[in-house]
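Problem statement: downstream parser choked on a complex file, so we are re-checking the raw output for the zinc ion run. The parser issue turned out to be on our end (a line-ending mismatch), but while we're here, posting the original submission so the record is complete.
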Amino acid sequence: MNWMKRILLLGAVLSCVFAPAFAQTTETPPPDGTTTPTEIPATLPPPERPTARTTLTIGAVEVQLYFDAIKQGGIGVLHVIGDGVTAARAEWLGDIIPFFPARDDGLFAILSANIEQTSREYDLTVYVDTAAGTSSASTRVRVGLGGFVRSTFTVPNDRAYLIDPEIERAEFARLSAVFEDNTAPRQWDETGFAMPIFGEFTSPFGELRLLNDVVETRHTGWDMRAATGVPVQASAAGTVAFAGLLDIRGNYVIVDHGQGVFSGYAHLSQIHVTRGQKVTAGQVLGMSGNTGRSSGPHMHWEMNINGDWVDPRIVSRTWLP
Ligand SMILES: [Zn+2]
């Protein structure tokens, strides 16, 4: 991870997780219209394979781009198809993003854009290795505006000390070490990433929050309405990379899904898994709650890909090869 991304990440992690029990800024109905927050997530149909928006050619190899642009906090999928390709990687925003085997054919990679990434065009270069050596192709990709909202929040007096940016920085350092590893193979299946509970979405991803009129932070995930004690399920299969108590996120679980993709579940009242444990999609990780920098019971769901906080709702709707 380069220094620029570290700074951007740090900014994003001055952030997170604070429960808007009394200050909802948006109300988005759940996809199927259900409002029962304790229901187990319904199995949504996996996203359909889209047609490629752009195709680059490197000799007989095709690089397909399944996006026109990548939003701040969004993702874009690259797919390399061709005979004799042994490996591929992308150079994007100062990082090298590895490709992994796709389900059907070829290799794929997930590009991400940080919430704070300036909206403009950037170079993208894809390298493919064949018996003949390494070849590459380049294009320009626009990072689009995330359309994030701004809001003010009051942290309750007994937890107001948690708005200290130093506390967030320390928490970021712990999380950053977990998210560094993007070498494990993919563990999710063709159903992709599901919601951890079946609740209403309340506070949106990327929201810029002014806490107690003092500290500005970025919301790194989505809040979902939930009473204390709602079973929180793994969005997809993976390995528990963190399970424990953090200052801001409270009782917190991170699942490593492989390929630099992580999901996080914050403010839990109980944790039912331990670090290193393999979990299946839908396995209960713990119970929703109100621990950490939170002003009421709710579920905070977040995802990190290649070190960037990304919108979990975008990820759950994106077809992955
Ligand atoms: Zn939150």
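For whoever reads this later: Helices lie at 3-13, 165-179, 312-317.
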